[in-house]
Amino acid sequence: MRILAMNSGSSSLKFGLYEMGPAEDRLLSGSVSGIGLATSVFRAKDGKGRLLADRSVTVTDSRDAVNTLLVWLEEGNSRRGLDAVGYRMVHGGPRYREPCRATPELMQELEALSPIDPEHLPAAVAVVNACRRAYPDVEHVLCFDTAFHRTLPSVAQTIALPQSLRDEGILRYGFHGLSYEFVCEQLGSDASGARIIIAHLGNGASMAAVKDGRSIETTMGFSPTGGLVMSTRSGDLDPAVVLYLLRHKGMSPDQINEMVNRQSGLLGVSGLSSDMQQLLEKAHESSHAALAVELFCYQARKSVGALSAVLGGLDRLLFTGGIGENAPPIRERICSDLGFLGIHLDAERNSAGVAVISADDSAVTVQVVKTNEELMIARHTFRLVG
To answer: Catalytic site residues?
Structure first.
């Protein structure tokens, strides 16, 4: 089957075109980045990584982004022979635990869920609807980023609010599920019986505690804004901070949403950049950049300790995502002072970014695993409709 995988985020749209069967062959990949900014960029590569497109585009929202992609696919005849389109849906609410076909009824239900995740769901729904209009004769499959965490025990899902609100769906969902699923599949039998923490560290960042291949705790909760410090997201906040901003700073809900999702995190603390590599380069000359890096690592290190407690010990620590895969200094800082858990890195292996970066005498195996959400979407789609 030829499957187009669509990975919609709040400010980007990634895609991959795969031929799925006995083998998994990537034919195309790329992204529309900077959605809503003055300058957006469309990039595409073929299956061998050769650049096919790299140009500035005007993209104000997700509809523009998906239309840019669809026009390019049409120009290259890449839609020919397409059998299915799979989508990353950031939120599936409390109900959806498995990939589903995109029926009109399901799309209406997801539109009704939009108030739970206004940053992501409306954009993702717009991408699905645009593709359904463009490709009415192929299968369309929704893959929910929250589904992997529906195995969380009840106590881990519960937010200490009145029952009436919990009944309305205010609970801890967890996100980055497609990435966690892919990493667990890469581990294969090594995940069986193991106590694992997976650190998905990128523009969005979270960690999950995985036992026997099942999620039992994660750092994100009701929304992707919570948990760890991220590129532009604040991570966990005392609720009284939001009340203070509403009552005493006169900020509106929309202004607070803009601040905690797009102006906080590494960008807010450093005042310079949301890019970790740039902050590492500036840390020696800017105390604010240094603080942003240290805060990111401190919060991540603290979460490793907390998740290890939930697991009752730790066998493997896995780094993935853009920062997790490509920033050896961040991995080193997070693992520092975790020797009491049995974590000891090998400095040379860590710098080289090889698969296993822990020292030979480390009781915990520390690994770097490259994630691939688009391929996971293609796999789910193939399994459902293949």
So the answer is: 145
Compute, in degrees rounded to 10, the torsion defined by CA atoms 366, 360, 305, 316. 40
> What does DSSP say about strands 40-46 and 51-57: parallel, antiparallel, or unpaired?
antiparallel
Distances (CA, A) of 34 to 13, 80, 229: 9, 28, 21
DSSP secondary structure letters along 40-60: EEEEEEETT--EEEEEEE---
pLDDT in tens, 148-170: 999 999 999 999 999 999 999 99
Q: Does the residue 362 lie in any domain?
A: yes
Q: Domain with 238 in it: what CATH number?
A: 3.30.420.40
* Range(s) of the domain holding residue 37: 2-144
Residue 234 and residue 295 in contact, taking contact as beta carbons nearer than 8 Å? no
Confidence of residue 9 (pLDDT cuts 50, 70, 90): confident
**Residue-wise pLDDT tens digits, 99-111:** 999 999 999 999 8
The reported pTM is 0.95
Whether residue 132 is found in the same domain as residue 198:
no
